[in-house]
Design brief:
The protein is mainly alpha-helical and about 675 residues long. It has a two-stranded antiparallel sheet with strand order 1-2. It starts with 14 loop residues before the first helix and ends with a helix. About 50% of the residues are buried.
């Protein structure tokens, strides 16, 4: 009845996962209990869980990503401390099979369920506002995309206490991931979690590409879009093109494991190197799926806090599209040592060096944007400047690894680990923190505390440099990655330095948590009353903070590359707002439980397939199909916001803007 699931799936002999699971369960029950006692369930169900508002969904994406980044950071702490306590005769505190699961879960969680949701969340929240529209193209599909991602994250975390996670690394290389070498359920947890979340990501990519191409404010041509919209378009085109490769690859691995096929096996005509080619044909575009939205964030932040337009806008667009195309021609540099031959390695090495040109164009444009500008240095700008300094180092080490002879020496070493984290942390994570801090007042109506934000920045930057600087040295000294025990004691000093850096990063994370608490407590002093706390340049700053459900009472008409900046300058010159528009009723998509219900059944399907509980899998498929049928047969698709409500909300916004204009006019010249 329960397939392979028995009591032996619970790791009663391993105190660490049990204690961790117990702590998570207590925290979860405490939160659920507090929500119940306060009577917040109706509000959460109506305004968040079933919401199809792109802003609410974006916030939930970011929240999921931040929680999972914290979960992945805990894995990183355990890896660094295990290596520092397992040198020579010491054995550390993690057995090999547990350590293997930790480094596999760390990469999986950080990429798929940490960085990806944060970036998709920021795109969901910001892109429709910057385009001057009211929502994404397919609002209910947007909700379903988020909840499927959350379903995948849930399955990964369930493996902590029910069964095990994969021991194959964050990409389950064949034949290690085949049943001959991984007979347990760990790889199955990986496959079903990523498949479910991957479908959600693919749907989100389709949604955002359609939104950007087909739903823009009147007058907003492609070359009038903000740079963040261009990088979001590039990232989501990559999602649409690359994620089907991941889906197909994992489907073939699933057929190998469940039905005895031989796509990637070591015998019967299987080709294990085909798995590596396919997974990296998705995997390297995935790097740019993550980094391109971050590039857009840095463009918005640097332009805003330099008080001038982005330098070389059209060259930035060209560089973005160049990266999108060339990102599909470099995947083999992940395995130069495969033995494809000198000609093949040389071709991919040259392509890898060429793709750096697109990023180089962006670096120079950001520098020229700051040159001659009226610079301000709030926390988002600090993250951006730190990115410029550290990403250049990571990029240069990447070009070094693009040279096949050098890669032969450094492949699978800690130098490679340091390079990857150098570019992903400084690009994606710093970009995420810059974007969250930058758009936080737009989402919640108040700014984050600057003192604790800068404290978190400096501690995180210092810890980052210490940890990965030590890893570069260890790699050059010959240390390979994924070692559960260190026999070569001469590496010990740098391992201790790395642990010290992790300690500094822990203080940085603590500072960010304190920043959130302090900001909520002092939210009235930090309140954004105008909707434009940073003197912004794009259309999202034309809305109140937080924006109403409909975003804009009347869709803006765009003239030029920076429409909001132009409107604001005219208002300052005339010391008055434009004429009040004629308000009309607005129809918005109705809240729908389709997303969360579909994700519930998807979780059942995934769990049932992992443990081979066939009746439960069938029930999940029937439930998911029934959900789609109910959604297709719904009678009312939209809810109506009256013209009176639209007028009331917009008049409050106009009053606050007029008060700001009056205050500006009273200041001495």
């Amino acid at each position: 009845m329960l397939g392979k699931l028995t009591w032996s799936a619970i790791p009663f002999s391993q105190p660490i996962p049990l204690l961790a699971a117990g702590g998570v369960a207590l925290a979860l029950f405490a939160v659920l209990g507090w929500i119940t006692v306060k009577g917040h369930w109706p509000y959460l169900w109506k305004e968040w869980i079933t919401s199809v508002d792109h802003k609410r969904i974006g916030v939930m994406y970011v929240l999921l990503g931040l929680v999972m980044l914290l979960r992945g950071f805990v894995d990183a702490i355990m890896m660094r401390t295990q290596q520092a306590t397992a040198i020579g005769h010491a054995q550390g505190y993690l057995p090999p099979e547990h350590y293997d699961q930790i480094f596999s879960a760390h990469g999986t969680i950080m990429i798929f369920f940490g960085a990806m949701p944060v970036m998709i969340g920021l795109m969901n929240f910001v892109v429709p506002l910057q385009l001057g529209v009211r929502d994404v193209a397919f609002p209910t599909l947007n909700s379903t995309s988020f909840w499927l991602t959350a379903s995948g994250a849930l399955l990964v975390n369930m493996s902590l206490v029910i069964g095990e996670f994969a021991r194959t690394g964050w990409l389950p290389y064949a034949p290690l991931s085949e049943t001959s070498y991984s007979p347990g359920v760990g790889v199955d947890y990986y496959v079903w979690a990523i498949q479910i979340a991957g479908v959600g990501t693919l749907m989100s990519g389709i949604n955002l590409v359609t939104t950007i191409l087909k739903q823009r404010a009147p007058g907003m041509g492609y070359l009038r879009m903000p740079m963040f919209c261009w990088t979001a378009l590039g990232a989501n085109m990559l999602i649409v093109a690359a994620f089907p490769i991941l889906t197909a690859t994992l489907a073939m691995l699933t057929l190998d494991r469940y039905l005895g096929f031989h796509f990637f096996t070591n015998e019967a005509g299987g080709n294990m190197m085909m798995f590596v080619n396919l997974i990296w044909a998705w995997g390297h575009p995935e790097v740019y799926i993550l980094i391109l939205p971050a590039f857009g964030i840095f463009s918005e932040v640097i332009s805003t806090f330099s008080s001038k337009p982005l330098f070389g806008y059209r060259s930035m667009v060209a560089a973005t599209l160049f990266i999108v195309v060339v990102s599909f021609t470099v995947w083999l540099h992940h395995f130069f040592t495969m033995g494809a031959g000198g000609d093949v390695n040389a071709a991919f090495g040259i392509a890898t060096s060429i793709i750096a040109v697109g990023t180089g164009v962006k670096i120079y444009n950001w520098l020229f944007t700051m040159y001659g500008g009226r610079l301000r240095f709030p926390t988002p700008m600090l993250w951006s400047i730190a990115f410029l300094m550290t990403f250049i180092i990571g990029g240069m080490t990447g070009v070094l690894l693009a040279v096949p002879p050098a890669d032969f020496m450094l492949h699978n070493s800690m130098f490679l680990v340091a390079h990857f984290h150098n570019v992903i942390n400084s690009g994606v994570i710093f970009g995420a923190f810059a974007g969250i801090t930058f758009w936080f007042p737009k989402a919640f109506g108040f700014r984050l505390d600057e003192f604790w934000g800068k404290m978190a920045f400096w501690l995180t930057l210092a810890g980052f440099l210490i940890v990965f600087g030590a890893m570069y040295v260890l790699g050059l000294e010959g240390m390979t990655r994924r070692l559960q025990h260190i026999d070569f004691t001469e590496w010990a000093p740098w391992l201790y330095v790395s642990v010290g850096g992790i300690g500094v990063m822990i203080l940085g994370v603590a500072s960010q948590l304190i920043q959130i608490v302090i900001s909520i407590r002092h939210r009235e002093q930090l309140r954004d009353t105008t909707g434009d706390p940073w003197d912004g340049r794009s259309l999202e700053w034309a809305t109140p903070s937080p924006p109403p459900a409909f975003n804009f009472p009347v869709l803006p008409r765009v003239h030029g590359e920076e429409p909001y900046w132009t409107i604001k300058r005219k208002a300052l010159e005339s010391q008055g707002l434009g004429d009040e528009p004629d308000y009309e009723a607005i129809e918005m998509p109705r809240a729908s439980a389709t997303g969360v219900v579909t994700a519930f059944f998807a979780t059942l399907i995934g769990f049932a397939m992992i443990w081979m509980i066939w009746w439960l899998a069938a029930l999940g498929f029937v439930g998911a199909y029934a959900t789609f049928v109910v959604f297709a047969w719904r009678d009312e698709e939209e809810t109506r916001i009256s013209a009176e409500d639209v007028a009331r909300i917009d008049r409050a916004r106009r009053a606050s803007r007029q008060a700001w204009l009056d205050a500006q006019g009273e200041q001495p010249a």
